[in-house]
Amino acid sequence: MAGSKFAYVRKFELPDVLLPSTFMVFRLDGHSFHRFSDEHGFVKPNDLRALQLMDHAAKSLMEEYKDIGLAFGESDEYSFLLRKSTALYNRRQAKIVSTLTSLFTSCYVFHWPRYFPDVPLRYPPSFDGRIVLYPSEQEVRDYFAWRQADTHINNLYNTAFWALIQQGGLTTTDAHAVLRGTVSKDKHEILFSRFGVNYDKLDPRYRKGSVFVRAEVPSYKKKGKVATQLELLHCDIIRDDFWEKYGHILRE
Ligand code: ATP
Ligand code: ATP
Ligand code: MG
Ligand code: MG
Fold it and tell me: pTM higher than 0.85, yes or no?
């Protein structure tokens, strides 16, 4: 097809195809959600409605993109694992990142009223997105372990921080000062001795984050193939147990 005399500018668009046969991890994160959560009155340290809305948007993404086998979410971020062999958008990076980020964001806004019926959106939220490639199963496992370890560190800190403020009557400056230099054991102790909170008994959703797996349903076959369904879990994904059960995610 003959183009116009202007069509040569197309040649300035460079290919950005991602390496074949390599795991893709797509992560998005809310832009300035510290402010967004303040302006929309998120409950601290963990607003359940906001986490459920994130989960809903993540599930929508996995329903649309079947090459995502696993997802992990905490706070204002979500990570998605795409199968090594995915041919999604011919593995064009900008196309994948922009389309998935955009769909997640529009799902977040679309479903907002269901989770925040009494809180109108004051301005449109946005998310950043990126893809990191990992060559083998070990790095993929370590990537997800890294995110879940981060969930634990942040949530323990935030739980102690907000207990000192909400129940202890401290200012934010004083709460930070109390926690400065403390290790994990000290924070458990502060929660238990001052506020009667056994951290390990708190809802695993907050301590472990959200895990979506595309699990096989062996008893049910669709067109001769094992059917799958999305399962939402709040379990440990660092130890071997999880990967022994759901290892098929890495091998497809
Ligand atoms: P950036 O644009 O660099 O990501 P940010 O303000 O979004 O900046 P993050 O490190 O991503 O910073 O942290 C997100 C912040 O959003 C948290 O620190 C917390 O204050 C808030 N937040 C996100 N989700 C929730 C939630 N479910 N409940 C309460 N607060 C939340
Ligand atoms: P891709 O995902 O590759 O971008 P696409 O279907 O969005 O695929 P485009 O080349 O972006 O393809 O073309 C957009 C199409 O959307 C147009 O061909 C046209 O059919 C339709 N479209 C967009 N805007 C309008 C509009 N204002 N009125 C009518 N049709 C529109
Ligand atoms: Mg953020
Ligand atoms: Mg974040």
Answer: yes
* 3-state secondary structure at position 229: strand
Instruction: Say yes or no: CB of residue 32 within 6 Å of ligand 1.
Output: yes
Say if domain 16-251 classifies as CATH 2.30.300.10. no
For the chain, give every domain's residue range: 16-251
Q: Tokens 């379990």 appear where?
A: 235
Q: Quick check: 73 and 209 in contact, CB under 8 A? A: yes
DSSP 218: E
139: Cβ below 6 Å to ligand 1? Answer: no
pLDDT tens, residue by residue, 77-118: 999 999 999 999 999 999 999 999 999 999 999 999 999 999
Query: What's the CA gap between 66 and 220, in Å, rounded?
Result: 18
Query: Contact, 58 vs 104, CB < 8 A?
Result: yes
Residue nearest to atom 25 of ligand 1 (CA): 75
Instruction: Give the Å distance between the CA of 186 and the centre of ligand 1.
Output: 24
Could you tell me what percent of the chain has a pLDDT over 90?
93
Mean pLDDT of the chain: 96
Contact by Cβ (8 Å): 44, 157: no
